Structures are given as C-alpha cells and as structure tokens.
Amino acid sequence: MDSIVKQHGSAQQKILDSILNPVRQMLTDGWILQYCRSIGHVWRCRRFCPVVSLLTCIWKQLGQFSARDVEDYVALLARTCDDTSRDGRDFCNARARLPLPLFQRAQELTGAMASNSAPRRYKHLRVALLDGTTLRTAATTANRKAFGSSTNQHGSSHSPVLRLALLLCAGCGAVLDLAFGPYTVSEARLFTLLISRLPSAMLVVGDTTACSFTIFAMALQRGSHLLCPLCPGRKRQVLRRLSRNDTLELWPRSTPAHVIYPQFLRELPAAIEVRVIERSIRRRGYRDYKVTLVTTLLDAKEFPANDLVQQYLQRWDIELDIRTLKHQHGLEILSGLTPQVACREMYAAILAYNCVRALMAQASATPRRLSHHRSIEILLHISTQMVCSATIRLPELFAALLHFIRTARSPQQDRPPEPRAILHRKHAFPYLTMSRKAWRDRYYAAS
C-alpha cells in the first residue's frame, strides 16, 4: 500500500511540475491550495488534486478538448503506462468536486491582473464595457428546470438557455465581473447586480438596456460613471443647454412598480442630473445614423461631447470579445448535463479566456491589436515545450512566449461594408428540433 501511495505521489508531482507553466505564473499552486482551505474545501490525495483539476479545466477550454483528451494529457504528463481506461469520467468527477467560489475568485484575479497590465483610461477613469448574451446548454431535464427556454411565435427552443452579463476591461478585453441567471431573468436585472459591485473611478460604456434611473444612481453611489444610448421611452426634464445638441436633464426617481429591485430605491436620491448628447455619425462607406447618448459626466469642458462619442463608438469591442468567448473557448454550447457542471464549464471558459488576455496584456501595451487565436496556439505550443525542458530553461521559454505573442499582430482592416450573409454553409445538416428518441420513433413509424 505504501508503494502505491508513493507511486501515486510521484505521478502527481510530475504533473504539477509540467502542467501549463505559463498560466501558473498567475494562478500559483500555493494560492489555489490556500484558497481551497480558506473556504473549507477538503480533498483526498489523488491525481486530480485541486491544482491539477483547475489547470486541466483551463487547458480543456483553451483548445476545446474533450474530457478523454484531458485524461490522455494528464497520463502523458505523469509518464505512466498503466492499463486503466481513460473514458473522461475521472476528469468530469474532479471538475464537479471543485468548489464554484474557486472558479469565481480565479476569474476575478486573472481579470484584475490583465486589466492592471493594459487598462484603457479616459481622464482619471478606467473604461469598462458592459453587455449581455445568452448561452445554450445541454438539453437535459435539470438544465431546462434551472435555466428555462426561449420562446417565440414558433414555440420554445429545444435547448435550455442561460443569460449572461459581462463587465469587460476596455483596454485588454478581460472579464472583470459577470452575473448569470435563467433565461427569464432580464439583462437589466443582471446589469444592476454588476453595477452594485462596481469599483470606484470607472466609466462603464453600455447599451440601451443600461439606461435606467436605478443603474445610473447606483453607479454614482459607487463613485463611477455611466455612458449609454438614451432609451426612447424615457421621461425627460430639460434643465439647461450646455451647447448645441448637448443638454443637462433631471431624472426623477422611478416608482417601485417600474423598478427591478424596489428595495434599492430607499438608498437612492430623489432625482439625478444627467447629460444628453446628440450626434450624427458619419463613416466612409457606411450609411449615416444619429445617436443620442446619456452620461453622468456633466462637465462639458472637462469631458467634451466628441470624446464621449468616441468612447461609445469603441463599445463594439465587447461584441468581438463575446464572439471570441463563444467560438474559441467553447461557450457557444455548454455540454454540462447539470446546472452545477454547466456553471463550472462557463467559468472555466472565461478563466481560460482571461489567462490568454493577461498574457497578451503582459506582452504588449496594445493587446487589442493582437490575434487572440494565434495567442492560444502559441500558449499551447510553448507549454508543450516546457514539459520536456529543464527548469533552468523555463524563464527563457516564457520570454519567448511573450515575444511570439507580441508579434502575433492582427492588422486592422479598413474595408467597405459587406452583405450580412455567409458565403457557404459549413454543413448541410439541419438542426435537430426534437429529442433523439422522438426522431427515432418518427423514423421507424415512417419506415
């Protein structure tokens, strides 16, 4: 028995010595184990300890590997030639055992590291982007009961849908904070939760959903500011005009019947002053359009209207970041069969995304100009080289990693507008709009 424990310990040490060395510069072994102990997490001595489990979750979402690929990867790192079957269950069980607060704290830590390396500032404020999206989950009874499904005139969707709100750093694109819930929970409710945890001295650029009295008043209470398009149905009271198409308005406090969180109204002021800016956007090759922005930055001399319009026009970066999260880190469809596993898979994908963004921010002062896809490939390639290299060569390989990421530039394309249609389909198979059992029953009945 002692020999088995020693052999198991040596295999675990081989894994810890070689798994994802660049990422372990941010998420150290000591920090992971100390945080697990601080929240009361207990584990046994096994190959998938908390450090290995968390790092393999990140590795899986970096390349969208399967659970069997993860176990093959761990077996190669351990240099074992046992005859045990690697069917993915060990990794799945290890991921389910990891506490969810560990994923949340790791996501906050990596997001803060990336944001501190390459922030975007406007005056004395750090700029952040706010937006929401939806994620499809596995079509199981547990997920459908926890998340619900989207509905339209054609009926409800086959897959359960999770609603996600993200607060991203405008400079590097890292996820600073997130809130999620069932599909029935509105984006405005999730935005309110994010604003209630907002740090001070930040400028949050959002969409029309963020245009509400509660969100604006809470941002002011947190010592931050908000910039978003004006909601067309908003009641407005003009105080005075600052300049042409630039007015100062007074927003009275909303009634409890029209507020998502009525309990917050008691702590909010009776009215707030906001600034409304109207501009016509002209771009070469595109149709002109008008935009009406509302912000809590009231000083027209310190914060010119044209500067605020330029800050809003850069909000499109968050749409690209959400696309990167879905297509390159496996957030397009969550494969977890239970809500607990689906949430861990979502956090693991965001954590892997933050690790790549942190390395891009460490490599260059302008990470927005770097290719995220090529940075992932470089990270996986250098990590493989570090497995077979001596310890003395690891700093040299890490410097090479940052150098190659720094040179993986994605040139900005200035091109005319294109049709919003795909050139060809990736495959000709239609979507399965029913369960597989129902399809088989219909197939055999027809035959």
Structure, explained:
The protein is of the alpha+beta class. Among the domains are: 2-98; 100-207 and 315-369, no CATH class; 373-410. Helix content is 43%, strand content 18%. It contains 15 helices and 13 strands. The chain has helices at 2-18, 29-38, 50-63, 67-78, 89-97, 100-117, 141-147, 187-196, 213-221, 305-313, 316-328, 339-363, 372-387, 394-407, 436-446; strands spanning 121-122, 125-137, 151-152, 155-156, 161-169, 175-182, 202-205, 225-229, 237-243, 246-252, 271-281, 289-295, 333-334. Strands 1, 2, 5, 6, 7, 8, 9, 10, 11, 12 and 13 form an eleven-stranded mixed beta sheet that branches. A two-stranded antiparallel sheet has the order 3-4. Strand 7 (202-205), helix 9 and strand 8 (225-229) form a beta-alpha-beta unit. It is globular. Residues 1-8 have low confidence and may be disordered.
